[in-house]
Amino acid sequence: MNVPLDPPSLAADAGDPAALWAALGWRPDAEQLGALEALQQELRQWNARLNLTRLVEGDDYWIAQVFDSLWPWRSLLHSPAAPLKLVDVGTGGGFPGLVLAIALPQARLTLVDSVGRKAAAVQAMAASLGLGERVVVRCERAELSGRSRDCRGRFDWALARAVAAAPVVAEYLVPLLRPGGQALLYRGQWSAADQQAMERAVLPLRAELRRVERQELPSGRGVRHAVVVAAAGLCPQLYPRPVGVPAKLPLG
Question: What is the pTM of this model?
């Protein structure tokens, strides 16, 4: 089912963080805002040693990183829930995982990336931000996380941003979910063909495509979609297939 999200109106100066909070209908408290600003400074320092991300300054950070990480989570931002376990696959420079750790103080997050230098940088940033007790970083391929006893079937939410084609990402994420858990795929454009391929891809994973939400980013930063897949039960043991196979032979 495709349920587009009607984007809220934005102030003219959408790059102003205050306008972004208004668009989300949520405002970070002083500690959270300080942590988001500290994260930006951490990225500046790490980028001097390692090319983590080019989206560090101004709108690149506040819109393309922070707002884009948070907008699919409006309902949880508005209504604090019981502690949740989230896993961010292919976290790269720590997005959306570190932003969610700041915005959802009751959540525990596992951040996965296969590049050792990136994983080490994200672990260091989490520690510097005081998130070390709630954020765990794993340096491994997503297929291995999906077969690890520590990760398989353990999470309320599994998420990925700009990792691979949607059917490939679904095979990475669904095995990580507990029964009733949900996967969130951050996507750019989303077509009817994407919809049909995804509906086919999740069937062997024992999951279903629950909804697709659409959001226009402020300041003409483009259109984003949040694709939500729900686990109907435990994922069959066949999935994820061995390293490299999901990308070479996508489901659906």
Answer: 0.90
* Angle at the Cα of 128 from the Cα atoms of 31 and 75, rounded to 5 degrees: 45
Quick one: which of 186, 187, 180 has its CA closest to 208? 180
Q: Which helix (H) or strand (E) holds 217?
A: none
Give ∠ CA 214-216-220 in degrees, rounded to 5. Answer: 160
Domain encompassing residue 218: 17-73+84-248
Q: Enumerate residues 6+ apart whose C-beta is below 8 A from 37.
A: none
Q: What is the mean pLDDT of residues 213-230?
A: 92
Band the pLDDT of 220: cuts 50, 70, 90: confident
User: Could you tell me if residue 10 is inside a domain?
Assistant: no
**Torsion, Cα of 182, 184, 185, 191 (10° steps):** 80
Q: How many domains does the chain have?
A: 1
pLDDT tens digits for range 100-156: 999 999 999 999 999 999 999 999 999 999 999 999 999 999 999 999 999 999 999
Q: Where are the beta strands (DSSP E) in 117-176?
A: 135-139, 155-161
